[in-house]
């Protein structure tokens, strides 16, 4: 009955048309696979492209149902959609992934429309194979994800460069200030040397006067000298002045050392020249610079080993040490803590350990501490770049930075640096 429907349509010219064209000819000429199913979910018509889609001739498709070509699960879904269109009369468009008999999967969009004739209800189904477009879409999404990731990395790198530029500017400023401070400190130090000599001479002269005092015949003159001696507390001055001079000189020496350490620390590697450096000297200079960050929170214990000089960019290694030591101090709260700095050598690598007795790092965030902009400090208290920059510096030196931490017990950073940079690094220089 249903097949004769389409045979009749093929043989009946379109009303009012002078051209004798059947519906089968029209459907066969369409550039998409199309077929018609009845209410029993059986195929009553397929066009040429649909035969190609099913990979079977018309005679082996007409009268068959979904189960003859698709899995039970897929056929059940098709029937469910068909029944929905039959009951509501509304068109349906559905995307499906179909695996053919050759095992190759295709992504198809099937559009189903209801039409009614004198002989019953039918569904006209058109199929668009969007497999290629789906592959392109997946590829585009993948590329987009890569671009997003690259953009994030680029932004992080840009921020690191900005931060590095800031540090370089601060370093240049600090070096300039240190140079300016060094000049007055130099002549103050020189003047103190002369002043010590002058005071020593004056004390020597004063002693000579005191020795001749007993030979004075005038009682009035001797009484006057005694009165002045008591009023100016000469005995106390003679005892206290050398101590004041000594303490002042020690203070100037300390300031001079701090200024020199500041110059060493803030030296900017504009030419990126690698040099052989004494790491202990760099660590000591850095500790002197950040002493104010530490002195109220922790005692610093140095356990230096016997290590050789290392080929490096000294100011960058100093920056790493500064970041780790300051972080260690910030991690200590409550009772006074301890920051231990150890060094040693293993094979051809020098290692540095910075361990604190602070609050420790939770295990769930430990893997993220080297990520750019990640920080547990309150907003405005940290950029989240210190550890990231430090990690990058150590990698630049072909070294490694590792961390161990236990919540409530403290954290230990372990840095490994090669004594000599390899040939590739030499070429880079």
Fold and architecture overview:
With 429 residues, the protein is of the alpha+beta class. The protein has twelve helices and twelve strands. The protein has helices spanning 2-11, 23-29, 48-54, 72-88, 131-213, 219-232, 234-266, 279-289, 291-294, 314-330, 386-396, 423-428, and strands at residues 34-38, 43-46, 92-99, 105-117, 120-129, 275-277, 298-303, 310-312, 337-346, 349-356, 400-406, 410-418. Strand 1 (34-38) and strand 2 form a beta hairpin.
Overall CATH architecture of the largest domain: 2-Layer Sandwich
Calculate the mean pLDDT score and round it: 78
Main sheet record: 5 strands, antiparallel
Number of strands: 12
CATH class of the largest domain: Alpha Beta
**End-to-end Cα distance:** 88 Å
CATH topology label of the largest domain? Heat Shock Protein 90
Q: Structural class given helices, strands, pairing? A: alpha+beta
Q: H/E order of the elements?
A: HHEEHHEEEHHHEHHEEHEEHEEH
Tally of helical runs: 12
Integer count of domains: 3
| CATH homologous superfamily placement of the largest domain | Histidine kinase-like ATPase, C-terminal domain
The best one-word shape is: rod-shaped
Please give the order of strands in the largest beta sheet: 2-1-5-4-3
> What level of helicity do the residues show?
40-55%
Residue fraction in strands: 15-25%
What would you report as the Rg, rounded to the nearest angstrom? 45 Å
Low-confidence stretches: 1-21, 378-383
């Amino acid at each position: 009955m249903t097949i004769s429907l389409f045979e009749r349509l093929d043989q009946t010219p379109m009303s009012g048309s002078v051209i004798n064209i059947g519906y089968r000819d029209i459907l066969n000429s369409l550039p998409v696979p199309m077929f018609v199913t009845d209410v029993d979910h059986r195929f009553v018509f397929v066009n040429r492209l649909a035969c190609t889609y099913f990979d079977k001739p018309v005679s082996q498709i007409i009268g068959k149902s979904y189960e003859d070509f698709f899995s039970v699960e897929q056929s059940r879904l098709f029937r469910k959609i068909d029944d929905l269109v039959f009951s509501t009369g509304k068109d349906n468009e559905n995307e499906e992934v179909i695996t053919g008999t050759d095992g190759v999967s295709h992504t198809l969009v099937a559009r189903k429309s209801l039409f009614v004739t004198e002989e019953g209800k039918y569904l006209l189904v058109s199929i668009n194979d969007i497999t290629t477009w789906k592959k392109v879409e997946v590829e585009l999404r993948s590329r987009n994800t890569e671009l997003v990731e690259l953009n994030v990395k680029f932004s992080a790198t840009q921020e690191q460069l900005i931060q590095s530029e800031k540090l370089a500017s601060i370093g240049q400023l600090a070096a300039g200030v240190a140079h300016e401070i060094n000049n007055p400190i130099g002549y103050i130090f020189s003047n103190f040397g002369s002043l010590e000599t002058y005071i020593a001479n004056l004390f020597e002269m004063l002693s000579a006067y005191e020795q001749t005092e007993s030979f004075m015949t005038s009682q009035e003159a001797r009484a006057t000298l005694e009165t002045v001696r008591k009023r100016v507390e000469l005995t106390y001055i003679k005892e206290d002045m050398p101590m004041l001079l000594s303490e002042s000189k020690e203070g100037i020496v300390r300031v001079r050392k701090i200024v020199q350490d500041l110059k060493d620390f803030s030296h900017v590697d504009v030419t990126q020249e690698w040099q052989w450096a004494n790491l202990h000297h760099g660590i000591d200079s850095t500790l002197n610079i950040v002493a104010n960050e530490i002195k109220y929170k922790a005692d610093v214990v140095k356990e230096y080993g016997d290590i050789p000089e290392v080929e490096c960019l000294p100011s960058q290694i100093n920056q790493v040490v500064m970041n780790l030591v300051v972080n260690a101090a910030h991690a200590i709260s409550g009772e006074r803590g301890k920051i231990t700095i150890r060094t040693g050598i293993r094979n051809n690598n020098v290692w540095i350990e910075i361990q604190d007795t602070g609050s420790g790092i939770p295990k769930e965030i430990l893997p993220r501490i080297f990520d750019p902009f990640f920080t547990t400090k309150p907003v405005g208290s940290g950029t989240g770049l210190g550890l990231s920059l430090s990690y990058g510096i150590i990698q630049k030196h072909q070294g490694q930075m590792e961390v161990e931490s236990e919540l409530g017990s403290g954290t230990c950073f372990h840095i490994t640096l090669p004594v000599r940079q390899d040939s590739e690094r030499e070429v880079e220089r």
